[in-house]
Design a protein that fits this description.
With 179 residues, the chain is mainly α. It is built from 6 helices and 3 strands. Strands 1-2-3 form a 3-stranded antiparallel sheet, covered by helices on one side. Helix 3 runs antiparallel to helix 4. The protein is elongated and about 55 Å long.
Length: 179
């Protein structure tokens, strides 16, 4: 299929490598016992809710606020978004064949991991807090809508960081897409 789409070598490389970098870690995230992580995130979120006056009780990865009991699952942890980001970064073929260009790409990849992964994790904690707070204040129906919408914002944030790391001129890209 990829060969019949008139794609550049870089596009073919990306489309064939992205699933290899995304799917195995995604499966691993869901097979591994990461309750230590979800419990830790639940603790942080419970503490944040308490800091804004929301009384709650914490039971492992469950946060009970009275009317609603939230469960922090692995999909809430930010690991899926981090996996998406790293798959995007590692799937990009280095531009050019020179050793200098490959070295620069390797440095950017290391920088992406060190700089952006903690940012994605922190952004996810903030997104999760806002989602939980919305559920407490406005109820389950609004929570469901906000949760869904914020997932797209989270993914958009990941794509923004990836484009920054890749050196994409966002104004040019948006202009090209809008025409």
């Amino acid at each position: 299929v990829v060969n019949h789409l008139n794609l550049t070598e870089q596009q073919k490389h990306f489309l064939t490598h992205f699933p290899l970098y995304f799917i195995p870690p995604y499966i691993a995230i869901h097979l591994l016992n990461l309750s230590w992580l979800t419990d830790a995130i639940a603790f942080v979120e419970s503490s944040l809710l308490a800091s804004v006056g929301v009384k709650n009780a914490l039971y492992g990865s469950f946060i009970d606020v009275g009317a609603i009991v939230f469960q922090i699952v692995v999909d809430c942890s930010g690991l899926v978004m981090i996996t998406l980001f790293l798959a995007l970064v590692y799937s990009a073929k280095p531009f050019g064949k020179s050793a200098k260009r490959r070295k620069k790409t390797k440095q950017k990849t290391s920088y992406a991991f060190l700089a952006f992964v903690p940012v994605i994790f922190l952004f996810n904690l903030i997104r999760l807090f806002f989602t939980l707070w919305t559920g407490v204040v406005f109820g389950q129906q609004v929570l469901s809508a906000v949760h869904f919408a914020l997932w797209f914002i989270d993914a958009g944030f990941v794509f923004l960081l990836w484009s920054i790391n890749a050196g994409v001129d966002l104004r040019k890209a948006l202009k090209a897409v809008s025409h």
